[in-house]
Amino acid sequence: MKLNIANVWNTSLQSEFNKSYFKELIDFVSQEYNSHQCFPIKDDIFAAFNYCSFDDVKVVVIGQDPYHGENQANGLCFSVKDGIKHPPSLINIFKEQTTDLGKEYPESGDLSSWAKQGVLLLNATLTVRAHEAGSHQKQGWETFTDAVIKEISNQKENVVFLLWGGFAKKKVKLIDKKKHHILESGHPSPLSANRGYWFGNQHFSKTNEYLNSLGLSSIDW
Asked: Which residues are catalytic?
């Protein structure tokens, strides 16, 4: 499988690409895509990196798995292809966004506009077998995406990390709190959101307030 990942990230992650675990991971993913229906499509596996270069990263959102339903996943965490029905977590993300920022609920669930502004929408696992949640976990993706988080933490400053839910919060150990800004809340899934752990976190406005305090441009969420 050929890596469709932006050249600017190639430089930062070259040491990972050369490790045996990563080569084994790519072999596994290639076999899965050859023998099963998997998501996202091959060209979108590294979409998070292709839309948002290393130099441009201002915000990191950490998800867990790509959507495993038909035509949903587009390589960006929580995002779906244009014209696809919004999954429950994305609906709650947009509800919080509209309340926090006073914006209208968006028609499209495609979050690539965020990514193009410096929001790295990173799933911990970048691929999944169709209709089998978590089917590509523990094959090496988590090692790779943890290395991505560490690289951002080590090489950059003043990045906002949005950690939504227990899984994402575990990644806090990879982030230098002295150099970066961390915002945590419950997960936007209905189970968590309806218990009061998501709505009202104001992460969108708080992110922009922090960026503005550094003289950086806001994200047009």
From this structure: 65
SS (H, E, C) 106-148: CCCCCCHHHHCCCEEEEECCCCEECCECCCCCCCCHHHHHHHH
To the nearest 10 degrees (0 to 180), the angle between helices 20-35 and 141-155 is 130
Choose among 33, 48, 47: nearest CA to 1: 33
100 — pLDDT class (breaks 50, 70, 90): very high
Average pLDDT over residues 12-39: 95
Instruction: Please give the structure tokens belonging to residue 212.
Output: 């503005």
Q: What is the pLDDT of residues 27-50, one digit of tens each?
A: 999 999 999 999 999 999 999 999
3-state SS track over 18-63: CCHHHHHHHHHHHHHHHHCCEECCHHHCCHHHHHCCHHHCCEEEEE
